[in-house]
Amino acid sequence: MESTAGPPLSGRRAQAARNDELIREAARAVFTADPGAPIAAVAERAGVGISALYRRYGSKEGLLQHLADDGMDRYLAQVEGALAATEGAGAAALRDALAAFLHRCLDLGAGAITMRLAGEFPVTAEMSAKGRRIHAATRELLDRAKAAGVLRPDVEVGDVSVILEYLHTVRIGDDERMGVLQHRYLALMLDGLARTGAGPLPGPAPDWQELRDRYDG
């Protein structure tokens, strides 16, 4: 089978690509913990010079915007994948797919980083359109789970957004321990989300406009 991979990067380009990945991973960790952290903290965690960071992104605002957009792309890929996998699926498959989807989002930081950074960067028209696409796809996935009886009927898209954001604020121990605890609390929340016979939740979930208004900060 013929390879479709492109030619290998030159030494300088390969190093730049590695630095870029280090910067993005460091920035996700630093700004998820503290959106107000200085950009120097990202360079320090990534182990790169701050000049390399500024050459790539220009400013902290530019880096935050890139991270948020990347987080949206990650989430969108996951939710559309979950929709494709659950087309015509039964209750058990939908329950498992919804849980797997949320655990993957947690691992990837998908969606949560965008919510966490709300108000810290300018939102482009493209990002706004992508947000509506994400909202619609998530609603469709939740509606399928509700129709199958594996999700309580009063859970909405805004609940999922806030739950993922809150889980990423769990900061106990090193990175490995923190990841274990985040998944522990997601497992507990999934039990609550599946309690279809429970009493109604207090008040409505955040709607699209409430979620969108956070970005005008």
TrEMBL record:
The keyword Lipid metabolism does not apply. Pfam families: TetR_C_43, TetR_N. Residues 17-75 form the HTH tetR-type domain. Keywords: DNA-binding, Transcription, Transcription regulation. Residues 38-57 bind DNA. It comes from the Bacteria. This is TetR/AcrR family transcriptional regulator. It comes from Actinomadura parmotrematis.
